[in-house]
């Protein structure tokens, strides 16, 4: 009884209740005035994404380059834990949990759809043609820079948790070497509130982007002509129940779910690659796209379209960097937590190998399957997309061209649910830790707090689904939330470099 009371007094009610009140207020606005709220979102998005877009690009490229420097420098030798500590998880288990926490079900949505969204964009025609560039941008937007965000912050948090043995698992604590005594004051509170708001925005975008695809698949499987919004909301509630159940069973539940998700995911990729008839095109087009992305990496990373001939970076690259930045509130904490016993070099380079490698394979296999049918004239997906703009129905139609299509649709549906559950396990766990003033290494938040966050994270996606927000407005939620988080990320990395340098100097003196 006494331990429960002690645990309750350690709860940070400001960080818990203010986001709760904000989410309830936003949900109310989206329910009461869906059209007006979408219009306001659109205007705010234009200001941040168009006027201040270069800010996101600079942070993206800067953090990626810094990740390579850290991995290759003397900082890379630091063990995240005691010096003789061994990794708690095997490379495969570690990679599974890292990959599934960092990428929710939207990787499947975008792997199928991103090439045709780009193919109809005027910028692709400016650069050359669909064959040369529509497969390049998906790989660029989901590989080196996004995982750079995760991995630099993961080692920063891992150092804080496992080397410095900090009991406050918060963004503000990661800034302590820079903030000093101000960490416990208004500055620290502001950083933590911004982090929690960004976390909620990231989950809202992720859930809202990909769940309509699940609704479309269910409609295709059962042909019941159900209302997509209603089905989407039911899917959100079912997913919430599954990831809540898994989370309440701790890391063991998360690890099992992550492995199931990975086997389903790679099983799907293997089936499409080996048995759907486009293997040669997938390999050759995938190699060409990967080579072109690497060859033009710095040009793609710094392109701003100053004359706005197509506004491609504003519509896509800036959105993606913002999207990954808001996810950085949760995923790197989780990656840092499970990386105990690994060196900083192993964490960064291993993360690039497993995370980037798996992501690239997904886009090459699933994207090039349908692009192969398009270029061979076996189907005209672009005409269908141009006619109705419904990416969700088009993906369902793409899957229906595969052998045993009903089976594939069912596997995609189950894999998406597994991805969502593993991702939101880690997010809800991180958010629960934010509700505490301090938590010892390995200590779990109280189940009631975990349950509160599981419910809180699902509320805004339901409101956005109800308001039938457009893809652009869903992107706006992340772009707005990421703006202040960019400053915080820079401060965290600066703090880590300062603290790690002091740690190595004190170590050398001994």
Automatic annotation (TrEMBL):
InterPro entries: BCCT_transptr (IPR000060). Coiled coil: none annotated. Keywords: Cell membrane, Membrane, Transmembrane, Transmembrane helix, Transport. It comes from the Bacteria. One of its GO terms (molecular function) is transmembrane transporter activity. It is found in: Cell membrane. One of its GO terms (cellular component) is plasma membrane. Its main location: membrane. The chain crosses the membrane at residues 12-33, 53-71, 91-112, 139-161, 190-209, 229-248, 260-283, 318-337, 349-369, 404-428, 449-467, 479-497. Belongs to the BCCT transporter (TC 2.A.15) family. This is Transporter, betaine/carnitine/choline family.
């Amino acid at each position: 009884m006494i331990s429960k009371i002690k645990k309750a007094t350690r709860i940070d009610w400001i960080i818990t209740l203010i986001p709760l009140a904000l989410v309830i207020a936003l949900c109310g606005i989206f329910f009461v005035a869906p059209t007006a709220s979408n219009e306001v979102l659109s205007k705010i998005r234009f200001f941040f994404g168009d006027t201040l877009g270069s800010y996101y690009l600079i942070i993206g490229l800067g953090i990626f380059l810094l990740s390579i420097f850290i991995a290759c420098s003397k900082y890379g030798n630091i063990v995240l834990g005691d010096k003789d500590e061994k990794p708690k998880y095997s490379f495969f288990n570690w990679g599974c949990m890292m990959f599934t926490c960092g990428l929710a079900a939207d990787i499947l949505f975008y792997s199928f759809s991103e090439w045709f969204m780009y193919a109809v964009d005027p910028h692709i025609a400016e650069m050359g043609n669909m064959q040369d560039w529509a497969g390049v941008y998906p790989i660029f937007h989901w590989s080196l820079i996004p995982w750079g965000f995760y991995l630099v912050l993961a080692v920063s948090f891992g150092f804080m948790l496992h080397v410095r043995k900090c009991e406050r698992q918060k963004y503000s604590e990661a800034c302590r070497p820079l903030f000093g005594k101000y960490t416990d004051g208004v500055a620290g509170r502001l950083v933590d509130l911004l982090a929690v708001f960004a976390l909620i925005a990231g989950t809202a975008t992720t859930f809202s982007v990909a769940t309509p695809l699940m609704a479309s698949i269910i409609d295709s499987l059962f042909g019941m002509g159900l209302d997509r919004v209603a089905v989407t909301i039911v899917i959100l509630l079912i997913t919430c129940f599954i990831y809540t159940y898994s989370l309440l069973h701790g890391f063991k539940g998360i690890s099992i779910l992550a492995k199931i998700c990975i086997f389903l995911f790679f099983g799907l990729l293997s089936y499409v690659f080996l048995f759907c008839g486009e293997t040669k095109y997938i390999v050759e087009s995938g190699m060409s796209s990967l080579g072109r992305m690497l060859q033009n990496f710095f040009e793609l990373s710094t392109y701003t379209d100053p004359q706005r001939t197509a506004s491609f970076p504003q519509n896509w690259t800036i959105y993606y960097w913002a999207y990954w930045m808001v996810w950085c509130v949760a995923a790197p904490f989780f990656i840092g937590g499970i990386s105990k016993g690994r060196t900083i070099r192993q964490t960064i380079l291993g993360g690039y190998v497993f995370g980037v490698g798996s992501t690239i394979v997904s886009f090459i296999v699933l994207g090039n399957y349908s692009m192969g049918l398009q270029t061979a004239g076996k189907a005209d997906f672009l005409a269908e997309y141009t006619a109705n703009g419904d990416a969700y129905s088009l993906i369902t139609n793409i899957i229906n061209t595969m052998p045993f299509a009903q089976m594939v649709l069912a596997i995609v549906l189950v894999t998406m649910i597994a991805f969502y559950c593993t991702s939101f396990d880690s997010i809800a766990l991180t958010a629960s830790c934010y509700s505490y003033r301090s938590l010892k290494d390995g200590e779990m938040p109280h189940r009631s707090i975990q349950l509160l966050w599981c419910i809180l994270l699902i509320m805004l996606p339901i409101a956005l689904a109800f308001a039938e927000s457009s893809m652009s407005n869903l992107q706006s939620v992340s772009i707005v939330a990421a703006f202040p988080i960019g400053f915080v990320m820079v401060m965290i990395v600066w703090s880590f470099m300062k603290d790690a340098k002091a740690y190595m100097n004190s170590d050398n003196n001994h």
